[in-house]
Amino acid sequence: MSIPAEQARRFLVARHLLAPARSLQGGPSAVLEVIRRLGSLQFDPIAVAGRSHDIVLHARVAGYDPSWCEQLYERREIFEAYNKGLSFVLAGEFPWFRAKRGRAAVRTLDENAEVAERVLARIRAEGPLSALDFERETGPTTDWFGMPANAVRAVLEAGAATGVLGLARRDGSRRYYDLLERLLPAELLAHELPLHEQYRHKLLSRYRAHGLLGAGGGNDIFSGLGAAKPDPRWPDSPGRRALRDELVERGEIVPVQVEGLRGKRFVVAEDAALLEAPPEPPPSVAFLSPFDPLVWDRPLLADLFGFKYVWELFIPPAKRRWGWYVLPIVFRDRLVGRLEPRIVRDEGRVEVLDVWWEDGFAARTADGFVEAMRGALGDYLSFARASRIEWPAHLRAEKRLFAV
Q1: Can you tell me the distance from the alpha carbon of 75 to that of 79, in angstroms, rounded to the nearest whole number?
Q2: Do 28 and 68 meet the contact criterion of CB atoms below 8 Å apart?
Q3: CB atoms within 10 A of CB 35
Q4: Per-block average pLDDT, block size 10, for the chain (404 residues)?
Q5: C-alpha–C-alpha distance, residues 47 and 209, integer Å
Q6: In order of start, what are the domains of the chain with their CATH numbers?
Q7: What is the DSSP letter of 29?
Q8: pTM above 0.85, yes or no
Q9: How many beta carbons lie within 10 A of that of residue 86, not counting itself?
Q10: How far does CA 47 lie from the centroid of its chain?
Q11: How many Å apart are CA 297 and CA 397, to the nearest integer?
């Protein structure tokens, strides 16, 4: 299949439920639909503008309330697994995302065997506990900086990494662990799959999440799946290239050539019809998380959307061109600017630190944009549980234009 660039852009915003934005109805069931559509949902605890998974869901689900995700988590309809970073995955897919007994985690449990025995005994007797429910202990385990780590926290994390424990719930950044056997049905825990099949399923999930990935895209996009070719460091993986060929042969992904882009792209088979005839996007605005799967492939953003996105978290402030936690702005099928908001929860307000418009985009005169931007800001206020937006002096024009 060969398609023009405009068709590819329209397809991406439509299959990402951003055309129109915030239109998927159904409350918690709509959250499940988004996770089903994307394969998994990356989690990050930074919450200056809302947690990443909440921003992703807010952009797609009508009236999204962060408590909906918490409800699904507590009802065990979703769980946390590693898939391009820590992610929420449908509970029914546990067999494909089962934690492997990595050497580092096993070593941590061995080095702190007595601590592990006491921690597991208390959890078995008392139910979900966090590291703060125990006295701090130290042992041979060290942190990234070579300092003695809290052995209790290390044991809890290693227990989750080896599939002995699971996360029962979160309270802010505080994590509560329980025995995995009490968190998921026995039939799911008993369903064992070959590692080869797990790798193939996880690779498919990456193509499902983005919608139009190529063979490359950087190690981060395909992290945890081994090298492109067979590598002794990942003896259980035949290599991503072989896994991708299997997915093509099985008819699960379809190769696509996009006008102006080098190399083939791949679309999951069920999206092929949408790719052939994507609808014209309405005048709708959405704000994207830095971890939104649509922005995973930064070279694609530059080549297809003409949008160069850099997450400047690790860039010194004096060298930043934009800001620390900046959200790309989607309008119709284009990325037209960047917004840097901060939620001040205890004062019930949102601060807009800055806005940057793309060259050639005129916010005031773009057909339908002003009304769509007002709607997006109003919905963001509700999402943040805030009553007002505060603008800096240099954005007086935007304050007047987008008053909500």
Answers
A1: 10
A2: yes
A3: 24
A4: 96 97 97 96 92 97 95 91 91 91 86 95 97 92 81 94 89 89 93 93 96 82 88 84 97 97 95 97 97 95 95 90 95 98 97 97 97 98 97 97 95
A5: 22
A6: 1-97+192-404 (no CATH), 103-190 (1.10.10)
A7: H
A8: yes
A9: 15
A10: 14
A11: 33
